[in-house]
Amino acid sequence: MALWQADYVAELLEAHGLKTEQVIIETKGDKILNKALSKIGSKGVFTEELEEQLRKGEVDIAVHSAKDMQASLGDEFKLIAFTERETVNDVVVSTNPDLKIDKETSLVLATSSVRRVAMLKHYYPNIKTVDVRGNLQTRMAKLEAGLGDGLVLAYAGVHRMEYDDKIVHHFPLDEFTPAAGQGSVAIEASVNMDAEVEKVIRKALNHGPTEYRLLAERGFLKELQGGCSIPAFALANLDGDEITITGGLTALDGSRVIRYEQKGSKEQAEELGRTVAKMVLEDGGKEMLEEIKGNL
Ligand SMILES: NCc1[nH]cc(CCC(=O)O)c1CC(=O)O
Description:
- With 296 residues, this protein is α+β, with helices and mostly antiparallel strands.
- It has two domains: 2-86 and 180-295, Porphobilinogen deaminase, C-terminal domain (Double Stranded RNA Binding Domain), CATH 3.30.160.40; 90-170, Periplasmic binding protein-like II (D-Maltodextrin-Binding Protein, domain 2).
- Helix content is 38%, strand content 21%.
- The protein is built from ten helices and eleven strands.
- α9 crosses α10.
- The chain is globular, with a radius of gyration of 19 Å.
- Ligand PBG binds next to β6 and α7.
- It is an enzyme of class 2 (transferase).
C-alpha cells in the first residue's frame, strides 16, 4: 500500500511536469510484525525513518497514509498537502462471500487496531477479535490460512490493493466512525522547504476540501493528545463552506462511546476539532484516556 501511495503521488507530480525519483524506506511499523502496533511505541511507528531522510535532505517529501501521522509533528517538519480522500469507511473482507455481519451471529474478525476492537465490543458484542499484523497481502494470506472469518480494514487500503471483490460488509459511518485522516495520503516536508517548490507540489497534490476535513480531524487529535494507538475516531465533512466534525473515544472494553459534534465555518476547521476534543475530555474522556494508556 505504501508503494501504491508513492506511485500515486509520483504520477500526480509527473502529470504536473515535475520529475520524481522514489526512495523506498522500511519503517519500524513495517519491520516489527510480532507485536501489536500499540505496544511498539506510541509515536512515529510509520514515520520516524522517513523523517530521518527528510532531515538529511536525502528526499524532498515523505509520502504517508494521513492516518498514520502523529497529531503534532516535530518543529522541523510540516504537512504540506493532502491528496483527495478516498471512501472513508471501515469494511470487512472475507473469503466467504456469504459472511453476514450483524448483531447476533458469532464471528471472529482479525484486526490490529484498538479503535476497531473497542468499537466491535461496543456495537457487535457477538463478534470476537484476533490480532493480525503485516501488510495487506500478508493479512489476506493469513485469512486464507484460517485466521478468523474476516479482516476489518480501511476501504481505502483494500481498494488500493484491488481486493474490492473480497469486501462483504461496509460499516456505517455513524457507528463505526473512522480514524482521523483515514483514506487520504499526507505529504510531509521540512519546514525549510523552498516556498516556490512547496507551492508547485501543493498545486499538484493538495485537495482543498480534503485538507479542511483533515485539519479539523487533526485538531481533534492534537487536543486529545492521545498518541496514535488510542481508540479515538474523528470524521469531518464539508458542505459548501460549512464543516461538521464528529469525534470521540470508545472504552477499550466497549462499555462506553463518548461522541460529540460541532459545526462551523471551514476556516475554523482546526478549532472546531479542538472543541470536540475538549467536550469529549470533559465528559469522562480524560479518565478514559488515562485508563487506556495504563492498559495498552
Ligand atoms: N496503519 C495501517 C494503515 N494506514 C492506513 C491504512 C488504510 C489506508 C488509509 O486509510 O489511507 C491502513 C490499513 C488499514 O487501516 O486497514
